[in-house]
Amino acid sequence: MPSGPTIYLGDDVIDGDTFQLQAWKAAAGFRAIGVGQGDCIALLMRNDGVFLEATVGAQKIGAYVVPLNWHFKADELLYLLRDSQPKVLVAHADLLPTIAAELPSQMRVVVVPPPAAIARAYGPDRNRRAIPVGLPQWSSWISQQQPIADTNVSAPDSVIYTSGTTGRPKGVRRKPPSSPDQAAANEKMRAAVFDIGAGARVLVSAPLYHTAPNYFSLRAIRYADSLVLATKFEPEPFLALIEKYRITHVYAVPTMFVRLLALDQAIRDKYDLSSLRFVLHAGGPCAPAIKRQMIEWLGPVISEYYGSTEHGPITCCSSEEWLAHPGTVGRAVPGAVIRIEDDEGKPLPTGSAGEILARNTAHADFTYHNRQAERDQLQRGELIMTGDIGYLDADGFLYLCDRKRDVIISGGVNIYPAEIESAIAEFPGVQDSAVFGIPHPEFSETVMAIVQPRAGTELDHTRLRAFLSERLARYKVPSGIEIRHHLPREESGKIRKRTLRAPFWENHDAHSIQRHSNPDAD
């Protein structure tokens, strides 16, 4: 059995041989309870070595892992579980009680006590960390398994849930490679984007239920010498981890840069960061001033890629390329095709902004789990719509301008107005509402809701916010709520969101929007 990297989480250390043994035992355990190729296994966990053991174990038998956003409320989590229909749920003990009573009876549950580092970071009390009676605990369950031999199946990507304008999350289920040539091209593309190889010492502090840190960590499991998992991002401890473990490779989102730059110069100078060779960021474009300062601080080690859960990586950009083309998100990665089109689907010339369509031919095709019709709607010829507006320069570098759809990006996290508007509609006395993004000095955008009450009804902001807080993850709850008795509408009756949104965006440059990480979604 091949070895893997040493994994560090706080004071916990697992060597590569032990990790691989645990993963093969997990594969045996999953198979023993009926998980087969193409089935799903859900994970409700914070950053933890067990998250990766379960993921790799599932991949060894060709099963899909469904990482769940543990910030979600019970209704949101239960929707994802009903939609993905996993045969097994592996969950941290303190996250389980809110949904345990409503889990499908046929779903097997394996419980993981939060390790000490997570308990310190998030404070789950001892009662909530206890293993519910009758449910197996991960380490004891694993110890009973006999590792299976190499299964020689293709390891599928995780099913990451992402939403569209309809608001309900959709699971992006990647199909197997269509040929050995496509598999080889995909490997070449990921090597170019993620850079992780022999000798790499990798640090990931972003949540593993997001696409990019998930890919980055699993790449580290295959190729790196060591992987350090942080329970959450905290600026100075982040620098301390780089120095302590002589980190060479880091995954980041732009708000981490903002918070790191906000540290006193004496703190920044305190740590030796000379080991860094590659700092990859994604989750939206970084403000040019911030990125330039990071390159000046760390040197030309900052790389960026643009893409989506559906498309995979589309472009990538080194520090040198960015300095020569400030504001770009890079050129097409190996295997990617990019075209800019107008609203009628006609190709636009160089320098003209329009909708970005793309296809990464090195990436296997995908479907939305149980929602193929919605997947089909994205197809335009051989390319797939992104919902983003941008343009290409004469050298083939891509620049983002705006979002075509109404998706709010707060701290690199997609927030979908339709979902929030549906929740608002359930509050007594609401006639209608419009939810959209407004500028935020750190996270780029935050959620604003303008609510129309029914005639003769008075709405209370505090009660409405409390109502939404019970139904939505914290980062989705509007930070601003305004009550208006009349909303601007089209002749069809549709609310003119652009009219409502425009005053909030006056004097803000849409071409240099910062996309930072929202701590409520870490």
What would you call the quaternary organization?
single chain
Number of strands: 26
First and last CA, distance: 34 Å
Which spans have pLDDT < 50 for at least 5 consecutive residues? 510-517
What is the helix fraction of residues, given as a range?
Answer: 25-40%
CATH superfamily of the largest domain: ANL, N-terminal domain
The CATH level-2 architecture of the largest domain is identified as: 3-Layer(aba) Sandwich
Describe the structure.
This protein has 522 residues and is of the alpha/beta class. It folds into three domains: 6-156, Rossmann fold (3-Layer(aba) Sandwich), CATH 3.40.50; 201-403, Rossmann fold (3-Layer(aba) Sandwich); 408-521, GMP Synthetase, Chain A, domain 3 (2-Layer Sandwich). It is built from 18 helices and 26 strands. A nine-stranded mixed β-sheet has the order 2-1-10-9-11-12-13-14-15, with helices on both faces. Helix 11 crosses helix 13. The longest helix is centred in the N-terminal third of the chain and has 17 residues, at 16-32. The protein starts with 5 loop residues before the first strand and ends in a 21-residue tail after the last helix. Mean pLDDT is 89; it is low at 510-517.
Properties at a glance:
single chain, 522 residues, alpha/beta, Rossmann fold, GMP Synthetase, Chain A, domain 3, 3 domains, five-stranded antiparallel sheet
